[in-house]
Fold these 2 entries.
Entry 1:
Amino acid sequence: MATLYGVGVGPGDPELITLKALRLLEEVPVICAPRSREEGESLAGEVVTSLLGEKLQSKEFLLLHFPMTRDRKVLEEAWREAASQVVARLRQGKDVAFVTLGDPSFYSTFPYLRQAVLALAPETRVAVVPGVSSLSSCMALGGVWVQENERLAVIPVTGDFSSDTWLNEFDCLVFLKGGRHWKKLREFLAARGYLAQARLVERCSTPEEKVYPAAEVEKAPYLSQVIVHRSRF
Amino acid sequence: MATLYGVGVGPGDPELITLKALRLLEEVPVICAPRSREEGESLAGEVVTSLLGEKLQSKEFLLLHFPMTRDRKVLEEAWREAASQVVARLRQGKDVAFVTLGDPSFYSTFPYLRQAVLALAPETRVAVVPGVSSLSSCMALGGVWVQENERLAVIPVTGDFSSDTWLNEFDCLVFLKGGRHWKKLREFLAARGYLAQARLVERCSTPEEKVYPAAEVEKAPYLSQVIVHRSRF
């Protein structure tokens, strides 16, 4: 049986891929990338295309459908379908690299594929190649960092984010998908007096990347991150 | 005035550096790396040496002293001394790359140098090149990830780490420098019934890297990370 690699290609800028990830993509016969619409594009796939160029022609390059829905049945069917395509290649003895933006361990699509592949073929060898996460790139662009004894919390705003405890006990809080519920998050931070300590980073690691003092932002795009640091801003 | 780059070289394996970091190291005339003892080695410096080899001979390669002490006066004097060496090169119009293991925003030495350089030369342009953090590489090796609405907390055990709130409200907790106070951390996790959900990752991204169920570990090396995940282990 071949190996399934979860490969982080970095936050979007193709130059932020690692040497290891690039070597693996050059070596494997099959590369898979996720896309959220059946005929849509894949951001991770675009990074691969821009890096490998014509070298892709000697490989199989599969775009796998990972729909954006909360319907668990639709999701599980899509994961199973994606996994069956991957397992077919693995069973032919072909190593498969599944690419994700950022880092495969950090809010990526890779775990869903991994679980679905292991359900179909439990003997599969899985290896993860870490990448530069969106957390690291947003902190770099936002001009913020954590050091010494500082505690860091990462909180997707698609879940509950409004705990006073976390605001008081963590030095740095990073709210993921901050654009989606920006109005509610903004109100929460403002009510606790933390809005001035917040930066909003949008489209990080793309040519349109920007950082704003969060207090100045009325509307934010979906993939924004909001970083609050008690003493850095 | 030239630019000071904070360059993350990844968690230790030279192949986990990004293309961007490698390009910058090849371009700049001055590379600096931190070491904790005056005549000691620099782990980040070793990554640079193994990647650049003979190309280093055309550059200035400075090892800067960042002592391991809690004596604030000794530390500040060391930061000032390191900064004055860097500022001298910047004032000659030479770009300087300061390399750190992992990611410059994530518990690295770069912020101390940045602050000290800006104190001496406030006009300095600073840019951060994110790297693969030890967090990403330990999660990859530990076989753990965060997804969807899961909340992640990163907690250096050199500070207070014993909050029941965090254990109950975060899905994944990563304890940094877990080796240093492993006995206390182990007792804390065991008392709350979380020891079975914990993995200890040691010497991640080196040839000696290992993962253990934390319950099996009596003594742990300094740079260990302990990862607790409510539902993944």
Entry 2:
Amino acid sequence: MNAEHTVRSFDEDLKTLVKAVLRMGGLAEAQLANAVQALVRRDSDLAGQVVAADARIDALEQEINDHAVRLLALRQPMAADLRAIIGALKISGDLERIGDYASNVGKRVLVLNQLPPARPVASIPGMSRLVRDILNDTLDAYGTQDLHKAVEAWSRDEEVDHLYTALFRELVSCMMEDARNISACSHLLFVAKNIERIGDHTTNVAENIHFLVSGTPLRAARPKGGGIGDTGDRL
Amino acid sequence: MNAEHTVRSFDEDLKTLVKAVLRMGGLAEAQLANAVQALVRRDSDLAGQVVAADARIDALEQEINDHAVRLLALRQPMAADLRAIIGALKISGDLERIGDYASNVGKRVLVLNQLPPARPVASIPGMSRLVRDILNDTLDAYGTQDLHKAVEAWSRDEEVDHLYTALFRELVSCMMEDARNISACSHLLFVAKNIERIGDHTTNVAENIHFLVSGTPLRAARPKGGGIGDTGDRL
């Protein structure tokens, strides 16, 4: 009886952990959406809110960490349970980074709003939408432990890389056209890179889902080289 | 007797884990040194070696991961032992990223070697040397569990940020001077950013050392805002 109670309560503990990770993912997704909206609208208030809200994501990561370490110490889980906890630790680490990158976009917007508008801004929302779609699918896959969906989301990172490469070229062309665009476009290079990195971390999340659901790594067949995304352009 | 044996052997297990992390750190440090040497000498062979050698760091991380998870499962450690294992997991994650960034510098060198040389390259080795110094001290602190040294290394990340900001400005100026510099300088922007990010991850390592040695987080007093490093320049 007592053992059964312990088991049930451990399941509850795990569910709480997964829910916290999903909440963190939802926040990170919203941060990216808001940062890009702030960019397009040149809205410094919204950008400032994004920067400030990053602390909530960091706090959630700390909670998840503490909870996971407590579970490891108290429950001494094995096999799938152990993987679920290590997975939550790792996924929350990636989501924290995603939050960081979104917040960095927010900081760039604050700088960009001091500069004249640059045309390539118009290409950012498309790339961001794709990354958010993939992140959203990945989080769904985590919530439902859906291996197939995780792999499908993971394989779409290549599209992100293509969009990023196109954007990189557009930004360099824009700088070459007129030296007055250089400052703004330099910051936009990093905005684009930040969004591309969010895609990379989403890929990591998908890989971790694969591992925690199946017990085997997905890394072997990684869809791309090593996360640089734009060394293809010999400009 | 048996219990003592188990204890002793667990200590051995932990030492093996720490040594693997230190080896990984040494490799990551060497990768950064080689990548920057390849940049300065325009040496594509060396750059290619750096890119290829990243796989060894990734493999070491996987080994550390597997070892750590096995220890968690088999030994069910508590308190300081648990922190040591979680610490090794986290530190190896940061070292893997450091390796990634060094390898990205190598990839940029391969692109840069197709382009005319750009003057600001000369400012990269100084920044890289500082980051390597800090990484070296941080790894020493990990090997000796030296809290004081870890905090000291951690606090030097601010110097890195200043060098990065200066370099960012230099690169933008160089692009403005002559549009023919724009391609090379765009790639150098990312080289500089990669090295600055290596500094950030080194900071994370120092924070993890603090936690695993003392059981309390260092994050509260982080020396800087949020890892963007160059939003100060309203160019």
